[in-house]
Task: structure prediction
Amino acid sequence: MIGEATCNYKMPEKLGEGSLGVLYKTKDLKSECFIAFIEPVLTW
Result:
């Protein structure tokens, strides 16, 4: 997922990982600003 562009977002780097999921520094390609994106970990 790192370095890939999905829809209007690009995920250049992974910030961390925890029990809830993986946190990425994500760039919105339309507004050119950075946001945080969490990819949830589904462990049931």
About this structure: Residues 8 and 29 are 5 Å apart (CA to CA).
